[in-house]
Fold Tryptophan--tRNA ligase.
Amino acid sequence: MTSTPRPIILTGDRTTGPLHLGHYAGSLRARVALQHEARQFLLLADTQAMTDNVGRHQKVTGNVLEVALDYLAVGIDPALSTIVVQSQVPELAELFQYLLNLVTVARLERNPTIKEEMRLRGFERDIPAGFLTYPVSQAADITAFKATHVPVGDDQLPMIEQTNELVRRFNHTVGQPVLVECEAVLSQVARLPGVDGRAKMSKSLGNAITLGATPDEITRAVNAMYTDPNHLRVNDPGQVEGNVVFAFLDAFEPDTAKVAELKAHYRRGGLGDTALKRMLDERLQALIAPIRERRAEFARDRAEVLGILRRGTMRAREAAAQTLSEVKGALGLRYFEG
């Protein structure tokens, strides 16, 4: 009887800053669970982060270790998950080069994720070529490890669609199934808003709570959270939709019945923002305290963390090299073998 093969997971983060609660709600918790049931690669995407950080490369490289510390602090086990530094796997860059020939500039410009990212960065027509082509780089990352599942937010679905387009086109071009299509795995919390009510939590926007935040930083962030500007008195009915405090309670309070009752109470009036924020502050303090403590413990031996990254990256290179060999064989690029 043939056993079902374990899924291969590829996920990761750009190394432009330490991770925050938006990352934790969106995918970090899922990654901790998935490592027990799948072969998981976690990519520290420093090469990709360089595409829109020209002249700020120290910001990118300096955060490689910081993001790795966040991974370890939330429970990623390097014995179960392979943590990979993207720039140290040259096979990814070579595969990226081959895949670039299978997509047009017009198709890249139509990618909804790229269009939105260009708008946010104000690139207009001065977009760096590396940034425009990063969906192809991401496709190379996914296909190099033959990932079958990729945890993403809903804003990243166009990237998965484009990856599978490239897989199909490559396989059709060479006439054999070398690369593997992948499936998006959506997180339960698609996107956590910033504390200021903006649509996305971001360290660069100053509206994030990092995983290493101190107790005072957590309290200040919660007290600053956007609620309902029309909820002026405790007895006034309040609006739950668009209320950041409730978005955080939905993401981090495991007692869903309690959250439902709080929402009902707020809507009918009689529940003040101060009391609501106090409850959320207690929940976040309890959540982040053990993460912060584990992070500090790992940070005391940074040499060992670098060792974890080195060993994981070498394992990843072996997997990527195997895929690249198959790709080059299918393209007839192995001139000196046999």
